[in-house]
Amino acid sequence: NILEDTIYIIRAISGGPSERVGIRGGDRIIRVEGETVAGTGVTTRDVQRLLKGPKGTRVNVSVLRRGMDELLDFSITRDKIPVYSLDASYMVDERIGYVKLARFSHTTINEFVTAVEALKEQGMKDLILDLSGNGGGWLPVAVDLADHFLSGSKEIVSTEGRTASRKYQARKTGLFEEGNLVIMIDRNSASASEIVSGAVQDWDRGVIVGRRSFGKGLVQQPFILSDGSMIRLTVARYYTPTGRLIQKPYEDGYEEYAMDFIHRYNRGELNTSDSIVFPESQRYKTLLMNRTVYGGGGIMPDYFVPVDTSEYSDYYRQLINLGILNQFTLQYVDQHRAEYLQDFPDFESFRDRYQPTPEQLEELIAFAAEEGLEFNEEQWEISREQVEMLFKGYVARDLWDTGSFFEIYNPSNEVYHKAVEILQDPAMIIQKLAKADN
Does domain 86-304 correspond to CATH entry 3.90.226.10? Predict the structure, then answer.
């Protein structure tokens, strides 16, 4: 991140070239190849230009580390930066495990397997798979992930184009074919996330909870043109095992397609499932229990959870949307990192014992005022608990990792709360997955 015109390291990527040479979270990059880059109006684009380069080449940086008088010099060998899929995995209670995937990439399956095996060793019997905000990725990875939940040779997804069609099926014994499964989705869950959710729902393997997903189900093929440029041409569409089209309608033109979420919001779809009307032609039956599920674009959850905006005051929204809370947290952790780690040597002690103090919150309010956000006491009281929780989560993220943030944030997430409630009350699963008469 850029903090006060200086490149600020939030966290060195695990296994990446910077971590290997000893760069730490909290370090500030002052010089790159002998050129001063601090206090010069450096931008994110400048960071990429200065630090990126061919694999195997070196870049020399000088960093300032809090508590040290002299700059530290590092020679970093450029390499491919691992982009991981797993944001978090932990035990919710003695039975329930939680795994959050941010994307579907070539590392996803290995990360998922490692996480689930570790959770099983801790006693996991039931699983929450969080695909909220997951915009998708590689089709083969989605098929492989769904294969871990579905037994036999069950169909996972099919593609249909003008000239060809293809079915993808389960092929191997999966890691979690038994045990209760809940998948969390929202309006930003798309593509590969919808393939997995749709297959699990169609085969009555688990319960989907949250809000209707994005509805992105197009197969695109790249074509290289004579001038070296490339276009991606849509050649097919994705269908769930019951025949539901994942792609939301495109027939009314791009403008209507792009406005789909606004239309959903205006219809009240985010606040009540009664606002979502499905024509008879978009009603399908699941393959084992004959339950009704819905097509027409996206995956409609089995348990709908409305958006709760009661704690989202305008002051709170601006704290978040303007990046003020995040920026304040970066500075605060940078100034107090040693104190935090002395008081809380591990995440567990921080999670269980730390609570933002009134003095810290007053500093945040003052910082926001300096950034031009006028304090509103009434709105502050509405959102105070939410701000405290996010500040604690951001501090944990900056001290440890992204997973720490979600372990603190999730208990305030209504979709997560519903997922836990379902798994702690087996009757809710039995009721939702019960065989329908017709």
Answer: yes
